[in-house]
């Protein structure tokens, strides 16, 4: 560790020597400290912003500010006719970064891709044995079960062999956890007896080179002058993350000019930000959905008429005003309108408490019933205030005779019990991972997710057949058709009431040029400059 | 004195045992484990969950986990953070100087302003100044730190532009870390490389002002009130009247004869306020983006980072004990009667 300190000290001295003028510096008021800089180990945006979006690249990447998959470290790829084999042709001349302890002797090649995935797939991988860790996101996307092997065809070609056809595989590879590590650096760390430095001194091929991290204070990067993508490369010399956990303070820092971009503003501050002549607020419909799930294994929620009655008695516009403070749009389907295959023809049932009461009577509950309504204890992008939302729904339901008892637990406990199916109705939500419809419909409502993210416990064959077929079909037009039908079934059967897609706001100083809001809630600073 | 120190040191043993048991038990009483917290809404394969818990040693019975923890403590090993995988001692020593710098600065503010206000209020008892100081100190004592902090930022940083909003130094200065105390490091950097670091020391001081006021306000209010009442008591003593009758100057009577004797209860309060400072540091550090141990511990609790919570709190508790220990010794210096009694 003493060696690590010496290296850090040397790095900081070097950084001090290269102190640059503020004109080439972009300061981002980030929301928290990253847990580390090895993207494979983590699942949160805070970790990915500081590593995957700055230091690393992936074989394929999401276009900045969009969900479209574009070439990254692979220039092109071929998919076999059976859809089980993906061959990637790698970009030549891509340089890895260097730091005080590592200077790369070669360019990026197939060995780096094989190392990156072998470490996540193979428990006997030498590096993984020396530095044991888990890869939760990689596992959650079902990759360990589906990837049979990753092989080097030649120095610039890599082939992935899959067990079953997975139409979202390419999009999965564009996700942060699939960031490509340097095999040469890993070998060196192993040889030096410091494999853990992979998590503290990252080496990648990305637009920014990691310089120094000071927990809870700052992360410093400098531009990668050798970056392969000249059009979408770094446009500032220095990128600094000023870690500022309190959203009100981030706003004040932005106003005082102490940073140029601020993460996650409070909804209540957005109007003030828009009114400030020095600031600019970028707005995008959030790639998320907040919803109310009905546990269809519990009576009387197994009754469709009851679910319909509960659904149409909820006053969504009132929730959007009070809970989202106008920073959201009503959700109709369990995916946002920006997701391809979104079915525009599906409509919500009209808000009608009288009809809802009649439906309840018809279902055999003229005097209503008792129910538990679970409210999340935390603020999430898709639901800024679950407690208030629960109170509003409770009041709406009381009008049709349904007596809801609001239940809440600590967040970890909440999710654990909900996965166990203890709830009746539950407020929860989802943020899209990879821009694929399967990531909404199958993950939230598929039969295979009944013990996982499918909190409705709804396993309905006609729906499930469509999403399973969608996942194993490569043709986008065909998939769109299947998912469009699936959304109709979900609305007819109502395992959930979709509430809202929150609006994502990203305030920046007026002199920031080229910043784009990521649909995935990530923050990328390549291609961004300061006037 | 030696036997007194030994006795106090011996008392540390049950204190440490109690603290370790309490923190170990309390953090585990919060539902959820580190793996669940990291995964969040995502699916957690039970087999992977079990494997991760096994890797972290969290699948063992609780008493074995505690024995492991106590054993490593006895070997001077504070373990590794479950989240960042960095040694707890290294994280603590990296972050502690920031908290220390803030605490010292806040305490200086509290003692200097509190003592002066208390002394003047006692001398001018019943005056407008006395009522004003006591009213203000009551207000200061009652104000939540996060609210006061935000108010200070909005007034002095955003509206008047006198002080920076948050952080320890302007990020244009990339100060090399030497001591971890930003004022010292900035001074050293400016001294060694005036071309690149001109104004760094002044900037570091400017960053200290608002957090010190926010954190020091409650102890300052307590010290001011305590000094006032203690001074009033001593001012009634015969020897003060004698000193005055002897024709000593008013300053000498106040500062030598009265204040020194009035300091004992004030010192006790100062010692006790270290605990308040540590508690307040959590909020102050969050508001002012101050990278100290308060923020570190909160983050660790949220992430169920057991080794960090257990050992971080142990370190803070030991620090509070140590400061109170020093205060006990200072009693003797401030008042020889106590030293003789012992």
TrEMBL record, chain A:
<feature type="signal peptide">
    <location>
        <begin position="1"/>
        <end position="22"/>
    </location>
</feature>
<dbReference type="InterPro" id="IPR000914">
    <property type="entry name" value="SBP_5_dom"/>
</dbReference>
<dbReference type="GO" id="GO:0030288">
    <property type="term" value="C:outer membrane-bounded periplasmic space"/>
</dbReference>
<keyword id="KW-0732">Signal</keyword>
<protein>
    <submittedName>
        <fullName>Dipeptide transport system substrate-binding protein</fullName>
    </submittedName>
</protein>
<dbReference type="InterPro" id="IPR030678">
    <property type="entry name" value="Peptide/Ni-bd"/>
</dbReference>
<dbReference type="InterPro" id="IPR039424">
    <property type="entry name" value="SBP_5"/>
</dbReference>
<dbReference type="GO" id="GO:0042938">
    <property type="term" value="P:dipeptide transport"/>
</dbReference>
<dbReference type="GO" id="GO:1904680">
    <property type="term" value="F:peptide transmembrane transporter activity"/>
</dbReference>
<dbReference type="Pfam" id="PF00496">
    <property type="entry name" value="SBP_bac_5"/>
</dbReference>
<dbReference type="GO" id="GO:0043190">
    <property type="term" value="C:ATP-binding cassette (ABC) transporter complex"/>
</dbReference>
<feature type="domain" description="Solute-binding protein family 5">
    <location>
        <begin position="68"/>
        <end position="449"/>
    </location>
</feature>
<comment type="similarity">
    <text>Belongs to the bacterial solute-binding protein 5 family.</text>
</comment>
Automatic annotation (TrEMBL), chain B:
<comment type="similarity">
    <text>Belongs to the binding-protein-dependent transport system permease family.</text>
</comment>
<dbReference type="GO" id="GO:0005886">
    <property type="term" value="C:plasma membrane"/>
</dbReference>
<protein>
    <submittedName>
        <fullName>Dipeptide transport system permease protein</fullName>
    </submittedName>
</protein>
<keyword id="KW-1133">Transmembrane helix</keyword>
<keyword id="KW-0813">Transport</keyword>
<feature type="transmembrane region" description="Helical">
    <location>
        <begin position="135"/>
        <end position="158"/>
    </location>
</feature>
<dbReference type="InterPro" id="IPR000515">
    <property type="entry name" value="MetI-like"/>
</dbReference>
<keyword id="KW-1003">Cell membrane</keyword>
<keyword id="KW-0812">Transmembrane</keyword>
<feature type="transmembrane region" description="Helical">
    <location>
        <begin position="204"/>
        <end position="224"/>
    </location>
</feature>
<feature type="domain" description="ABC transmembrane type-1">
    <location>
        <begin position="96"/>
        <end position="331"/>
    </location>
</feature>
<keyword id="KW-0472">Membrane</keyword>
<dbReference type="InterPro" id="IPR045621">
    <property type="entry name" value="BPD_transp_1_N"/>
</dbReference>
<dbReference type="Pfam" id="PF19300">
    <property type="entry name" value="BPD_transp_1_N"/>
</dbReference>
<feature type="transmembrane region" description="Helical">
    <location>
        <begin position="313"/>
        <end position="334"/>
    </location>
</feature>
<dbReference type="InterPro" id="IPR035906">
    <property type="entry name" value="MetI-like_sf"/>
</dbReference>
<dbReference type="Pfam" id="PF00528">
    <property type="entry name" value="BPD_transp_1"/>
</dbReference>
<feature type="transmembrane region" description="Helical">
    <location>
        <begin position="9"/>
        <end position="30"/>
    </location>
</feature>
<feature type="transmembrane region" description="Helical">
    <location>
        <begin position="102"/>
        <end position="123"/>
    </location>
</feature>
<dbReference type="GO" id="GO:0071916">
    <property type="term" value="F:dipeptide transmembrane transporter activity"/>
</dbReference>
<feature type="transmembrane region" description="Helical">
    <location>
        <begin position="262"/>
        <end position="283"/>
    </location>
</feature>
């Amino acid at each position: 560790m003493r060696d690590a300190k010496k290296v850090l000290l040397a790095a900081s001295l070097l950084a001090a020597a290269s102190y640059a003028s503020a004109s080439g510096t972009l300061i981002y008021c980030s929301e928290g400290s990253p847990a580390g800089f090895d993207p494979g180990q983590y699942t949160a945006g805070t970790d990915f912003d500081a590593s995957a979006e700055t230091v690393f690249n992936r074989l394929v990447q999401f276009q900045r500010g969009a969900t479209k998959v574009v070439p990254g470290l692979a220039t092109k790829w071929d998919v076999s006719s059976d859809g089980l084999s993906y061959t990637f042709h790698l970009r030549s001349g891509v340089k890895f970064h260097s730091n005080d302890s590592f200077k790369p002797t070669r360019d990026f090649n197939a060995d780096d891709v094989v190392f990156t995935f072998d470490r996540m797939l193979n428990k006997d991988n030498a590096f993984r044995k020396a530095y044991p860790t888990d890869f939760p996101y990689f596992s959650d996307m079902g990759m360990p079960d589906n990837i049979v092997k990753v092989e080097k065809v030649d120095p610039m070609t890599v082939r992935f062999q899959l067990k079953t056809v997975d139409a979202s595989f390419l999009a999965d590879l564009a996700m942060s956890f699939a960031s490509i590590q340097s095999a040469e650096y890993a070998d060196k760390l192993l040889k030096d007896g410091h494999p853990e430095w992979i998590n503290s001194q990252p080496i990648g091929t990305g637009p920014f080179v990691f310089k120094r991290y000071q927990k809870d204070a700052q992360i410093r990067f400098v531009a990668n002058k050798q970056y392969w993508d000249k059009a979408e490369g770094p446009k500032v010399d220095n990128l600094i993350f000023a870690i500022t956990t309190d959203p009100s303070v981030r706003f004040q820092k932005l106003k005082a000019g102490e940073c140029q971009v601020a993460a996650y503003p409070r909804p209540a501050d957005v109007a003030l930000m828009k009114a400030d002549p020095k600031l600019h607020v970028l707005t995008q419909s959030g790639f998320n959905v907040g919803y109310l799930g009905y546990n269809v294994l519990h009576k009387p929620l197994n009754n469709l008429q009851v679910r319909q009655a509960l659904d149409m008695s909820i006053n969504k516009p009132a929730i959007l005003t009070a809970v989202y403070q106008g920073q959201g749009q009503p959700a109709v389907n369990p995916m946002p309108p920006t997701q391809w295959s979104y079915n525009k023809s599906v409509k919500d049932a009209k808000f009608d408490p009288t009809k809802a009461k009649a439906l309840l009577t018809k279902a055999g509950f003229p005097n209503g019933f008792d129910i538990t309504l679970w409210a999340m204890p935390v603020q999430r992008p898709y639901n800024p205030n679950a407690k208030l939302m629960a109170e509003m729904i409770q009041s709406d339901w009381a009008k049709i005779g349904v007596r809801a008892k609001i239940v809440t637990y600590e967040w970890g406990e909440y999710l654990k019990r909900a996965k166990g199916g203890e709830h009746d109705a539950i407020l929860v939500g989802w943020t899209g991972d990879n821009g694929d419809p399967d990531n909404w419909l199958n993950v939230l409502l598929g039969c295979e997710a009944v013990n996982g993210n499918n909190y409705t416990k709804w396993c309905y064959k006609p729906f499930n057949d469509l999403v399973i077929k969608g996942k194993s079909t490569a043709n986008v037009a065909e998939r769109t058709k299947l998912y469009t039908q699936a959304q109709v079934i979900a609305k007819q059967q109502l395992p959930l009431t979709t509430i809202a897609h929150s609006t994502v706001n990203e305030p920046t100083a007026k002199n920031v040029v080229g910043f784009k809001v990521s649909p995935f809630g990530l923050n990328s600073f390549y291609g961004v400059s300061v006037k | 004195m030696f036997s007194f120190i030994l006795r106090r040191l011996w008392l540390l043993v049950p204190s440490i045992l109690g603290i370790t048991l309490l923190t170990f038990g309390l953090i585990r009483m919060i539902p959820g484990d580190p793996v669940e917290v990291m995964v969040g809404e995502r699916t957690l394969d039970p087999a992977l969950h079990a494997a991760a818990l096994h890797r972290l040693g969290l699948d063992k019975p609780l008493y074995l986990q505690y024995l492991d923890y106590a054993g490593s403590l006895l070997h001077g090993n504070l373990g590794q953070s479950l989240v960042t995988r960095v040694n707890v001692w290294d994280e603590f020593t990296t972050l502690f100087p920031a908290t220390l710098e803030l605490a010292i600065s806040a305490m200086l503010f509290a003692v200097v302003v509190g003592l002066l206000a208390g002394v003047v209020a006692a001398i001018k008892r019943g005056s407008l100044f006395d009522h004003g100081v006591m009213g203000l100190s009551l207000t200061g004592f009652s104000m939540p730190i996060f609210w006061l902090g935000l108010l200070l930022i909005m007034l002095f940083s955003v509206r008047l532009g006198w002080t920076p909003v948050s952080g320890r130094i302007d990020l244009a200065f990339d100060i090399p870390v030497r001591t971890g105390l930003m004022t010292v490091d900035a001074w050293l950097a400016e001294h060694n490389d005036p071309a690149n670091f001109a104004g760094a020391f002044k900037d570091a001081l400017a960053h200290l002002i608002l957090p010190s006021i926010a954190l020091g306000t409650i102890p300052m209010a307590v010290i001011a009130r305590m000094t006032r009442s203690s001074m009033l008591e001593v001012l009634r003593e015969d020897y003060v009247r004698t000193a005055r009758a002897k024709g000593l100057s008013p300053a000498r009577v106040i500062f030598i004869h009265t204040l020194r004797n009035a300091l004992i209860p004030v010192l006790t309060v100062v010692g006790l306020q270290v605990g308040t400072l540590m508690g307040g540091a959590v909020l102050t550090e969050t508001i002012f983006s101050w990278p100290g141990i308060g923020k570190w511990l909160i983050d660790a609790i949220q992430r169920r980072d057991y080794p960090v919570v257990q050992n971080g709190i142990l370190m803070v508790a030991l620090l509070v004990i140590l400061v109170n220990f020093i205060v006990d010794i200072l009693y003797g210096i401030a008042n020889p009667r106590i030293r003789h009694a012992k």
